[in-house]
Amino acid sequence: MAYVSVKGGERAISNAHQWLDEMRRGDASVPELTVEQIRHQMSLAVDRVMMEGSCYDPELAALAIKQARGDVTEAIFLVRAYRTTLQRFGATEPIKTPEMAVQRRVSAAFKDIPGGQILGPTFDYTHRLLNFDLCDAGPAGVAVKATEPVVEKMPTIASVFAHESLLEQTAAESDDAPEPYDLTREPMAFPAGRDQRLQALARGDEGFLLSLAYASQRGWGSTHPLCGEIRMGDVTVEFTPEELGFPIEIGEIVVTECQMISNFEGSADKPPQFTFGYGLTFGHNERKAMSMAIVDRALRHKEVGENGVHAVQDEEFVLYHSDNVEASGFVQHLKLPHYVDFQAQLQFVRRLCKEWREAREAATPDAGEFAEAAE
Q1: Between 43-53 and 58-67, two packed helices, what is the crossing angle to 10 degrees?
Q2: SS3 call for 226
Q3: Which of 47, 67, 166, 338 sits at a 20 to 30 Å CA gap from 227?
Q4: Strand spans (E) along 100-180
Q5: Calpha distance 66→57 (Å, rounded)
């Protein structure tokens, strides 16, 4: 019987896979969506899959979205799984975001920020009205590029405060600095350093971090910051081969960087100043970068002497539960057979019910006589 059950299960799973492929393809009379179309026309979804999948490869992310029928979390899972098969041959040099070829750069805190405001491609000023013209898929038109990226070096938010020392200073880079924590190769550890926290937040689910950031601003946290600066554009990636001993450029990637600033009243050791939270993502992903920066600042409460009494300030709660692949797997495994678990719980509940009835009857010996009188 066990053998027959296993064979039947395999056949059912195979049929489920075939049905899934049919559902993914949809109506065969409709042209199939290509990976290239997804890559170029669903770029924001592609960027999110790359970021939370921890792999910068637009084509691979587009393929995952197609295979997952548009389920972004499932696509992230596919990319994460594929990533584990790739060989790592080294680590790049830190990217230099101040040297970014900026496509978009805004500050909500400084109207006349040095370098100027660059709106770039954004939904912020659209009317959120459905454009039914998009229903008519005509022939491919000629792409028009509104502006070229700003190639020259653009000042960062830190340079605005440089002459007043009103923004907290980060630790300077040094040759003897320890290697950053690698969350893709090491398990989560607590207490977590900021390098580990930022890695976990970068891979974390956008919706979860957005909810935490929103909660923090509404009173379930101590952080209600201003957007000091958010920028999106191309940055150069450099790698130092052992045989050369100096860095060489191996490509460019698009990233979004955000710094949220919050006022700090000062302490015995630190003067009053602005503190900041930091977010960095692959691609154009502002909502995630902003949420990440707000949560990062909330998790830094000990550094500025704040009491961590809210969930968003609990690093174990935030870091353990922000990973959508982990969370999705743990929730969805409840769909798999749990027959033995349920039978054990069923027997336990039945025994409790029996003991409860016996205890009730013992406490009210005349309960049977009252029932007969009522009848």
Answers
A1: 100
A2: strand
A3: 47
A4: 101-106
A5: 14
